[in-house]
Amino acid sequence: MEQQKNLEGYVGFANLPNQVYRKSVKRGFEFTLMVVGESGLGKSTLINSLFLTDLYSSEYPGPSHRIKKTVQVEQSKVLVKEGGVQLLLTIVDTPGFGDAVDNSNCWQPVIDHIDSKFEDYLNSESRVNRRQMPDNRVHCCLYFIAPSGHGLKPLDIEFMKRLHEKVNIIPLIAKADTMTPEECQQFKKQIMREIQEHKIKIYEFPETDDEEENKLVKKIKDRLPLAVVGSNTIIEVNGKRVRGRQYPWGVAEVENGDHCDFTILRNMLIRTHMQDLKDVTNNVHYENYRSRKLAAVTYNGADNNKSKGQLTKVDTVEGISPLAQMEEERREHMAKMKKMEMEMEQVFEMKVKEKLQKLKDSEAELQRRHEQMKKNLEAQHKELEEKRRQFEEEKVSWEAQQHLLEQQKLDASRTLEKNKKKKIF
Amino acid sequence: MSLINIVLVIGFQGEGVRAVPLSGHVGFDSMPDQLVNKSVNHGFCFNILCVGETGLGKSTLMDTLFNTKFEGEPTQHNQPGVQLKSNTYELQESNVRLKLTIVNTVGFGDQINKEDSYKPIVEFIDTHFEAYLQEELKIKRTLHSYHDSRIHACLYFIAPTGHSLKSLDLVTMKKLDSKVNIIPIIAKSDAISKSELAKFKIKITSELVSNGVQIYQFPTDDETVAEINSTMNGHLPFAVVGSTEEVKIGNKMVKARQYPWGTVQVENENHCDFVKLREMLIRVNMEDLREQTHTRHYELYRRCKLEEMGFKDTDPDSKPFSLQETYEAKRNEFMGELQKKEEEMRQMFVQRVKEKEAELKEAEKELHEKFDRLKKLHQDEKKKLEDKKKALDDEQNIFKQKKTAAELLQSQAQQAGGSTTLKRDKERKNVCVLSHVVLFLSTQEHSLNSRS
């Protein structure tokens, strides 16, 4: 149906990307980043380092300074501008996570938060009157792993297993400057092994058509999970002012690729894959949430309230919108009713026919009998007529005979009289 | 390298948003590029609808705009109704891929009765809105890879009469202005002189305004393009000329139409507004046309459709509905409706059955009555016959008796032929008696005969 056409001159739609660029700058951008990890792992420091700003400060303390009895989920929004581009950044943190003695279900508030953002988006998307839909969905979750050097803790595994299908998880090794490069390598290998073992789906960098880019992507993949170091202080090293941590034995530089993977993280998270993180959230995680939610609402009638949020027979309603489904059901029902109507009609007609037939039969029968009786009667009539005729005939002939006899007798008696008279003489 | 950015505060009510300065280059200024890269990889799509009478040069203009020969033979004027023919093409310019769909109205304006001419067009647009809506409402949907088939721009071709808009034009544009971005253009404008053209444009614009037709305005909210767009808005409707033939002017080959009195150059802004149209439609506002279609026209369609189906944003107590509640409520209503229908049908049938039964009973009764009557008649007849029979039998008996008596007498008389008078007298007496009896009987017979 589509034909490839060659253009014989400059048309100008190659300008489309510029138009898109222009409009996006005008609109501005949004991004929501979630940081999860036990207190003291350097989460706030890392955020400040990433965005080169005092997002967390004494005025706005980070999660470790806001000790809570139970796990809370809190967010702070900041507006940052750079190069004419505006970004509304929302940082979601979880003070109290993993800090209790009994940490069972400490991931639940996190799950609830993510789901509630999905729910908000779903509702605003489904309104009749839709206006600008702010995107408050969590686009990325940085999960901080304590640098034990041994492997993942049960809490880490549990958390990632429960959230990998709801949000893009990027696991980070925190405070990486407590490990030597070799220890770090071992640790990373161990973690990746465990991640694969438990079939945890962390955020994957998309493949591109570009060979060069793919090489870079491969290099990054080999260094997962990224080991990071953050710092709020600027130190002078060799005449340069850098962010770093001052130790008696030297300075661990945040932005030095040999010291840690911070630069990789920043490049990946902000400079190259921010849009992709949003896309994956929108096209995969959100769609999963939505289809589960809607499937629960529509197809299973009474089971709905029990199975909210669980996958229920999604296969059977794949690719149908609830409204289209209602239409389908309506059509089915109409067809069913039509069939029922037809059947009832048929039965009705049949019964009526039967009855009519019976009536006809009995009428015919009666008619027949009547005819027969009539015939009978007529026959009898005829018979009678015949009899009478015969009788009449007989009578007439007999009477004639009698009359003759009478005549004879009369004659005879007359002659006898005559003879008698004669005799006397 | 380290810049301190000016702090901008935007009013986000109740959100507690704070603007913070950056102490270095973070790098999110690449976001627009990231977005652009994604779009370029994904490819673009654009759908144009050309509405206009047969012979106004719609296909030629498309060919000229996109520098290529699209399909088709020119249509005849004898189409029985308006049909929409659409063709999709894959174009590429540098690294930008564009899936272009051109929809043409075939037979528009050719019929004697043009009252319904706009209907196929409206239906077409609605169909594609509906398709998008259905996709959007699916449980498992793939919106990001969905091929957007909604019409993004409608070029309305006005015939170059030089006087005013035809009523068909006004009616059609009025029906379309809330459904699609309308860009009116004066077709084959090389038939109009410059002075006539100015007057024509003014007349058209004032007629559109006085009839409340909303045509597409090039957006002026973005500073980068505000100026050029607002200038162009003043040149609407564009007077265009299309041509795929090339003529040598100077030492260049240009697209033109050659007349005995001169050559009309398509891309010469003094000759016609083709360049302006191309600039506005393709180079500057293509993306905006798509956006307007999605955020304004499609939303309007969607809102109307959902309201039609009974969806509301808030329940009677003005509390917002959650999607789930809405769907469940709708569903219950729906099921209730279906059940009611079923009941009604059943009731109707029960009624019919009753009626029919009564009817048949009536018929049966009548039949029986009829036959009772016949039976009665028959009985009467039978009785009569019986009577007659009896009468005959009686007669016969009488006759028999008479006969036997007579015969007896005769035989006696014969037997005693010349015997004693006494016998004879006796016989005679007997005969006398008998004859009296016979006489008597015969009189009876007579009376019987006369009676029967």
From TrEMBL, chain A:
GO molecular function per UniProt: GTP binding
Record-linked Gene3D superfamilies: P-loop containing nucleotide triphosphate hydrolases
Keyword Membrane: no
Keyword Coiled coil: yes
One Gene Ontology biological process: cell division
GO CC annotation terms, alphabetical: axoneme; cleavage furrow; kinetochore; midbody; septin complex; spindle
Compartments, as annotated in UniProt: Chromosome, Centromere, Kinetochore; Cleavage furrow; Cytoplasm, Cytoskeleton, Cilium axoneme; Cytoplasm, Cytoskeleton, Spindle
Coiled-coil residues: 323-408
Domain Septin-type G: 27-296
This protein's UniProt keywords: Cell cycle, Cell division, Cell projection, Centromere, Chromosome, Cilium, Coiled coil, Cytoplasm, Cytoskeleton, GTP-binding, Kinetochore, Mitosis, Nucleotide-binding
Listed name of the protein: Septin
Organism: Pygocentrus nattereri
Phylogenetic classification of the source organism: Eukaryota, Metazoa, Chordata, Craniata, Vertebrata
Automatic annotation (TrEMBL), chain B:
Signal sequence bounds: 1-19
Keyword Nucleotide-binding: yes
InterPro entries attached to this UniProt entry: G_SEPTIN_dom, P-loop_NTPase, Septin
One Gene Ontology MF term: GTP binding
SUPFAM superfamilies attached to this UniProt entry: P-loop containing nucleoside triphosphate hydrolases
PROSITE patterns to which the protein is assigned, alphabetical: G_SEPTIN
Septin-type G domain sequence ranges: 42-308
Coiled coil stretches, renumbered: 324-402
Record key words, sorted: Coiled coil, GTP-binding, Nucleotide-binding, Signal
Source species, domain of life: Eukaryota
Family under the similarity heading: Belongs to the TRAFAC class TrmE-Era-EngA-EngB-Septin-like GTPase superfamily. Septin GTPase family.
Stated name of the protein: Septin
Originating species: Pygocentrus nattereri (Red-bellied piranha)
